[in-house]
Amino acid sequence: MVDNVVIVGGGTAGWMTASYLKAAFADRISVTLVESGKIGTIGVGEATFSDIRHFFEFLDLREEDWMPACNATYKLAVRFQDWRRPGHHFYHPFEQMRSVKGFPLTDWWLQSGPTDRFDKDCFVMASLCDAGRSPRYLNGSLLEQDFVEGAEEPVGLTMSEHQGKTQFPYAYHFEAALLAKYLTGYSTDRGVRHIVDEVEDVRLDERGWIDHVLTKEHGELHGDLFIDCTGFRGMLLNKALEVPFVSYQDTLPNDSAVALQVPLDMKKVGIRPCTTATTRDAGWIWTIPLFGRIGTGYVYAKDYCTPEEAERTLREFVGPEAAEVEANHIRMRIGRSAQSWKNNCVGIGLTSGFVEPLESTGIFFIHHAIEQLVKHFPAADWRPELRDAYNSAVAHVMDGVREFLVVHYLGAGRDDTQYWKDTKTREVPDALAERIERWKVQLPDSENVFPYYHGLPPYSYMCILLGTGAIPLRPSPALSLTDETAAQKEFAAIRDKARHLVDTLPSQYEYFAAMRGA
Ligand code: FAD
Asked: Is residue 166 scored above 70 in pLDDT?
């Protein structure tokens, strides 16, 4: 039986894994987590995917329990600022695409959209973001949407099984360090052994499997299964087991970031219910509003910008509020481990892989990996089929997200600096060029996007293509031969619903101030 798990690393990946394994297997397994007291974590103030709620539900945690402890807020969309041209913005919302007569509403929008804002015409969430609204009323009830709370399938299914059936209308922003602390309490309360110590060596047996890790103060830690959550270091998987790293740098050149955590009076400035990604000369800046501060950072390619220039650009963007705040410079390893599971070691989190946080996929990768690990959990015979299935599910998710991110850059109208000019001539991953040719005459659908589960439904691709603007699109020819009355009615219904929701929902600040009893 495989029932003794040792996790090395106490960042978001380590603690999410420890708590999920305990929620799944309770006392049937023993879990030890060792983290360094000297090496810090990456967590910079995090935005997530809407599927993350399955993680909290699986742990049986209510929003009122964990959100105030992690300064968390709601995220209804990603707002893309200046990707098409200066002053332009659009949203990629958590909202299922409606269809009329078998064609997605965006197709009808290309044919005869009522305004030049596809996001506002096709989704209600865009209006809620512009107006800074919470997706819940002050009594806690969820906004009326196509998603009906409580009507979905029970928790415990994997995310891929949920996809396409329902779309929960929001994700979260939270402070990663506070979430790790919260999950430390959750995990240790359920029996996880927590050790603060340095792992100094990884010892292999004669087969090349991990026998134990050697710590400075606590000696040898033995286990059946070792989870490498040491971040970009990949101490067990990449270093000890020599699993190579497959870089995505040829297609996604951003390899650096500089981050600031800026305290703000949120009552005064409000809490935008979205993550914002604003272009700059050599990359883009994220803005993640939390309760009490914003997390912000410039993601850039060091071939086009020095760290000093990047920090200056970020400070100019934020303004005087950040004058006293120390900047955190981060080098990013972009790509994935060739295998995330080798022998008796599984890498989760940054060890397994990472792409720039343009669509907030880091924690999604972690959550997906943990679910897959539970689904493919090994028995004493360590059947390689389980490992191989795990490895291909994890690789597909990351390769698919890579493609999706490349579409943002190819599609961006912005082309005024060398960095943005080069986004149009850089190598494109296999098969994507062919897919783009198809999308020029037929909007993305489940038949013509990346063919494996990667968390992004076809409507996400439509949003990016329609919003960024450089790839020419056209409506299906059939629409010019079809009566459009029903589509126009749908546009009108969305406009009316958005207006009603903006008028009746509280602001994000009001909602969280009430949750905290402020
Ligand atoms: P880390 O946080 O690096 O943790 C590594 C752990 O390993 C630490 O506890 C450390 O002490 C321990 N360790 C290392 N070596 C040893 C040793 N020898 N002995 C003992 N312990 C050791 N994701 C999102 O979902 N949304 C976002 O908006 C987002 N933004 C990001 C922005 C940037 C710039 C970056 C770089 C990442 C971002 N991510 C985001 C990704 C997210 O931060 C990570 O996926 C997440 O924090 C998981 O990190 P980790 O736990 O794998 O590694």
From this structure: no
pLDDT score of 517:
82
Angle between helices 458-468 and 384-411 (to 10 degrees): 20
- Grade residue 382 by pLDDT with cuts at 50, 70 and 90: very high
**CA 11–ligand 1 middle distance (angstroms):** 5
**Closest residue to atom 15 of ligand 1, CA basis:** 230
pTM of the predicted structure, to 2 decimals:
0.96
pLDDT mean across residues, the chain = 94
| Per-residue tokens: 254 | 């951003």
**How confident is the model over 7-17, as pLDDT tens digits?**
999 999 999 99
Q: Containing H/E element for 71? A: none
With a Cβ cut-off of 6 Å, ligand 1 is lined by 8-14, 34-36, 39, 41-44, 46-48, 176, 198-199, 229-231, 233, 235, 257, 259, 297, 330, 332, 349-350, 357, 360, 362-363, 366
Q: Give the separation between CA 437 and CA 441, rounded to whole angstroms.
A: 7
Distance 13 CA to ligand 1 centre (A): 7
| 75 counts as catalytic | yes
**Nearest residue (CA) to ligand 1, atom 43:** 43
Query: 90: closest CA among 459, 467, 502?
Result: 467
Closest atom, ligand 1, to C-alpha of 12: 51
Kindly state the greatest CA–CA separation across the chain.
75
Q: How much is the ipTM here? A: 0.99
Whether 207 contacts 189, CB under 8 Å: no
Burial class (CB in 10 A: 0-12, 13-18, 19+), 281: middle
Rounded CA gap, 39 and 35, in Å?
8
- Using the mean position of ligand 1's atoms as its centre, give its distance from the Cα of residue 177 in Å: 10
